[in-house]
What does this fold into?
Amino acid sequence: MRSPNVKAQPQDVVKDASMIKQKEMMASHYERLTGAPQTGAKVASTFVPGNLNELIMCFDLVNNLPEVNAIQSGLRKQSGGYIMEAERAGHSEDVCTYVKSDIGMMMKGNIGPNGKQLPNPDVLLLSYTGCFTFLKWFELLREQYKCPTIFLQTPYMADGKITKNMIDYMVKQFKEDVIPTLEEVSGVKFDIDRLREYLAKSAKAEDDLVHVLQSAKNKPSPIDAYFGGIYYIGPIFGAFRGTDDAIDYYRFLREEVDARVAAGKGPVTPDGDMGEEKYRLVVEGPPNYTSFRQFWKMFYDEGATVVASSYTKVGGTYDFGFRHDPSKPLESLAEYCLGVYTNRSLPMRIDMLVNYINEYEADGLLINSIKSCNSFSAGQLLIMREVEKRTGKPAAFIETDLVDPRYFSAANVKNRLESYFQMVEQKRSGKGVAA
Amino acid sequence: MTDKSVSEIVARCEALYEDLNFTAAREWKEAEPGRKVIGYMPIYVPRELIHAAGMLPLGIMGGGDNLEVIHGDAYYQSYICRIPRSTIELGVSGRLDFVDGMLFPSICDVIRNLSGMWKMLFPEVYAKYFDVPQTYQDEVGGVFYTNEMREFLHDLEGIAGHKITDDDIRASIEVYNENRRAIGDLYALRAAQPWNAPASEAYLVIRAGLVLPVEEHTQLVRDYIAAASAEERPLKDNSRVILTGMFCEQPPLNLIKSLEMSGCYIVDDDFVLISRWLLGDVPTEGDPVHNLSQAFLHRSMSTAAKYEPDQAEKGQFLVRAVQKAGAEGVIFASTSFCDPALLDRPILQNVLKQAGIPYIAFKYAENSGQMQPIREQAGTFVDSIKLWSAA
Ligand code: SF4
Ligand code: SF4
It folds into this structure.
């Protein structure tokens, strides 16, 4: 049984320095974006997986990420309306709801989370990693915005390795197309030393991020690496990789997490410190954003902490050693794009999840299968069986959607989770292992 | 001149189409020791390279509406299209046990992920994700693609146990050029006289090319053209339409027939795109791999799974197809849950709207059984086309 007195009440929650810092960073970013028409700043729309923030900054462009906007719309419960708007305009109910949320938002005047209108992009940087839907998404946006579109193809890591041909191809695309077009759009000449400087900063923040993610190997884990992890990856997956702000943020976060470890504390949740850690899970797949808090609560109310997740690797996989490397700037950007989670073959994904279960001593795997997302979802049932087979740990499967509230059934999800936790218990008692 | 009748040829093609054990390909393989078969999925792979290795390229387009999917559903959620689950079914039920390798072209995330699933499920079989460039500069996408093809050739040499020379590839290119010409002629005949070469027959004739050796298929197409041209079937008061969106999961034959019965002459389509992917002949002089790459980069078809770098060009292929075939409207038939087709559809529809070309849209699955709604929708479309043209 959970002891409710262990938890802080919401009013007691003290915001950590990292949380305050992140809030400020996000607010200033959206101000910069929505203020672009006044300041004359130019805007590049691009995606999280394969986000080339350091390069974008070399041209003084402001980074706008439609997926993050869709997430914001989901969290603020506006995505449902946007999706319906897009469907009324002829978009199929079958396709990715990120795209429809973004298109619906555009149709409704493109109002950002700060209540101000987001500017039209000056360039669409279609850095296309890990998902074919991105390609269609920007073709749809290009039709509306009629602005230059830069295409960067990242070959798929189908055989579990990065070949010279892949890197050469990407570096050539940078040199022949991406950089010259960004120069043209921005009017800023490319300076490779500037890029090196940003990449060095990225690597620094990446070290601290990895430290934070790996802190979940502690028992109890001081972080929730899925629900909490989504906040932690925000700056580095978004518009801050390569900035001093990101370095500061991850330093603060690291210090806070270390302090929690020293104090033997579990993760911070929206309801304050989490109670006793009863289950340690690995989660595969994106979360649901329209009922994010409710979804998370179903975990922490039961004492379940997510100790590792694949979703926190969609904007870059750093925990197996990759860092942005200023000594080989373009190659390093290529490697970064190639390594994002959804650009990895199915066998690689399985290896990674098995590794997480073992390394983080998890009780099992939970898959949140997203209706929208073929990139993640196609093959997940096989992933589930294979991970179960290899680890001997139970796995469970739930189905929701990212930002379409029609596909989040709280009762179903809760039922599934409850029976999953029972399964974990049974497995433990069957084996006579004490938790 | 041929002595085979249309019905004989079509009956043979239909038998090939329905044979989910791929007996023809099995027999080809067994006819000589050491023969190998390489399967491929939609949309495109350079079959010339497989042929040059002395192997049979075998097109796998899912299981159609005759395959009972028993195991496949355990691999996929309900919101994923049907072709990957029926293809898995073909695999786990042993129907592809004679296949020595499988290619999964770069087309969408589902086929992409299936390549990894295949590696897990059939570890003893060569499985390759076949990547193609989405950037079309010679020195960039072109070099990447040439290298990918060279790597594939190297793999094929390993499977074949012998070298593949440039002359082998040149000879294969020529053989496929002949096939492309024959298929081009068949499409031209159908556009000119759809009553004599209806889409439901042309489709079966093209599909036969997925399982037969190419030389035999070219002859079959020629035989069909000759036989169909010799017959004079009654001309109906149908409307001429183009079907689009069927580039991956194939429609049930019944769907094509239903459209014809509801008054459509289908004068162009995107079925089995591989057979027409490269436009015109691929040169046989010079570096053959380079030539295949050039053809892919600069002279290949457009479809949803292929990036169009030029906004002004986006969707124009469809407008040109309408003009070329003298079509009066377009039918968007998209596979349910197919992100590429369904996300592309609104863009293409806008292009058609601007060009004043009428269209309708519906979804299907390879095992769709209920044709009544589609028949009604198509019938209404045909009526409205007639009204417009009368006005
Ligand atoms: S399909 Fe998945 S990865 Fe692709 S854009 Fe949609 S949510 Fe993102
Ligand atoms: S039907 Fe569409 S989504 Fe399904 S495998 Fe084919 S291209 Fe992909």
